[in-house]
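Re: duplicated header lines in exported structure tokens

Our pipeline writes sequence and tokens for each protein into one text file. With two proteins the header for the second block appears twice in some exports. Here is an export where it did not happen, for reference. First protein block:
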Amino acid sequence: MTSPLYVTQAGRLNVEVFTRREDMGQAAARDAAEHLRQRLQQQARVRIIFAAAPSQNEFLAHLAQAADIDWPRVDAFHMDEYVGLPENSPALFSHYLTEHLFDIVRPGAVYKIPAAGEPVQNCAEYARLLQQAPVDMVCLGIGENGHLAFNDPPVANFDDPLPMKIVELDGVCRQQQVNDGCFPSLNDVPVHALTLTIPTLMAAARLFCMVPGKNKHQAIKQTLTAPPSAACPATVLRTHPACTLYTDIAGFGELADE
């Protein structure tokens, strides 16, 4: 069994640091799978929101191989999507999750955020689907600018009245998509996206947050040490009653010595 190299806490946020991102993904998937099994024993269906990003690769690979999960009783959502990309674009987050998880485990229901169509209407319809029952789990990451989903610092709101909204992506966020290899250049990255808001994500009963790699070090440091504010949206995770942040030593860095 993979054990963390280092364990700490920031506010109510549990933090587990692993030697390698592969170990991180395996441990996070083990914990998420166990929680999912418990939920499936307690209720007829389980509703999960997933993030789509290279930071989730190892986690999703191990989760897809987890045994004894009744995936036909799982309703799967995702947390954000670009506006305006063609339906067959490999850069779509729905495409990523289909390839890395949905086509492998075959959840009973998969609700994809449309990239095409009228954005306001798409937000309203997706919010309606989400609000039909409580969300049980969120599997998420943190952006290089501290964003959760596409709640970048300029548009993040801890008290957002909307369950989902249209946002303009900031420059750091768009550059991250290039850094992650999702687009060849900044000009190729869409400017607008649809995102679940921070209150929607925080309303879930259990959060699993996977944030590996040295490019995320500053975001992790701010998440754990900065005053809670929309300047680093991920600082809100320190207030959730049941959230664990999983990272590797490359992401955590010198914080282990502080």
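Second protein block, exported in the same file:
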Amino acid sequence: MHVWELDFYRRPLQDETGNPLWELLVCDSVGDFQYAMVCPQAEARADWLLVQLQQLIDAGQPRPDRIRVFRPQTFNLIEPVGKQIGIAVEPTRRISTLKRWLQERARQYPTQAGFTGQPYQPLALDKLPPVPLSETLWGDRWRFAVLPTADLVDTFSDRMIPILDMPESLLPLNLGLASTTPIPGVVIDGGRQAMRLALWLQQAQPILLNYIPGAPDGLILEAGLVDRWILTTFEDAEVAAAGQEFERRKQLSQGLHFLLVQPDDAGMTYSGFWLLKTEA
């Protein structure tokens, strides 16, 4: 599958008359192809994007099967363009090639004549406040858990699991993790709600889990582009200690962790499994 990664958003730049500039960045998923074009803010619309993408294709750039974007504002602009030119647009946070390029560009902006000097974080998004998960989805019990790296892929890749999300880029071997590295995670025994919860998670697109200390403590799921969900809250000291250990192990595993939903703890059937990773 040929994939483009795309971002179209304002930058800390302005033209000669002081008007803010937006920038379109397009690359393929391996970085062999890169395209950049600035746009006056007054022209930053879907029709401008349409012209740029059509020109790229007309000039002989291989037509992508899919365009991936990580910024909600960009998605709102590019989605109707994708429909017009017959290319699927996928909102996802997992576009590492583009994000690395954005960080490189951010280091270059201060050297440009139109740099405004404004604070700029190229990957920053306005995230939504966390929303409690509906009680109708929650299962019987949950717990922090850990799996050896050596067992992680073998345990789940060959099982008949209705929902299985193990991106190749997140496999421990591709991250360079030692086989002895413990991978932390969260296991939910969903009971009768297991499949319903797994289907909801599949639609929500899980990205990462965070233990948040507080009064009470909480387990937060980051999903989609900017969604945040409160999976549960608790005040138990032992669970809080397990949450702290969960975060410590995430640091040792380069942020890699997992979420497993199963009907019960018998280990016979699973409803859904996701490999997750803390964002860069």
